[in-house]
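User: Show me a protein chain along with its predicted structure.
Assistant: Here is one chain, sequence first, then structure tokens.
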Amino acid sequence: MKNFTIYLAVTLCLFLSRINAQETFEERAKSIASKIESITKDEKAALKTEVEAVNQQLINGTITKDEADSKKKKLAEARAINIESKVALAEEELKNLVQEKVDGKIKERDTTRTFKLEWNNKKKWKVKKEGESRTTSQFVFAAGFNNLVTNGAAANSDFRYWGSH
């Protein structure tokens, strides 16, 4: 039961554990690119909702067409500044990533995935006995004859040594 528990625990550890290696250059570059895309999408969506609100005010008659145009321009400029500042941070991060790659701080992913599990085998550490080995790899040829002894003599048997008719 003790062995079963140990084997079960080791098996669970092997299959349920997750080893996370450092992200590669390509993965990090893709994540920065997706971050830039999400920044622009979010800011454009926010600008669209603000412009729709201004258009609704124009339809309701609370503001004039010139005021609506000037508000739209101000909102667009503010969102453009937001996009530029956030994208500049992401571009700086990308620039640092490229510099790390050039400097050799980022290692390539190891393409040979290996898994090695080793137990301490005490047989390896035993000292080999001095003396002759009991097993050899020599070729041995042997032949023999058998005969049935009947009535105390082998000469009068019904079986022959060499013949097989």
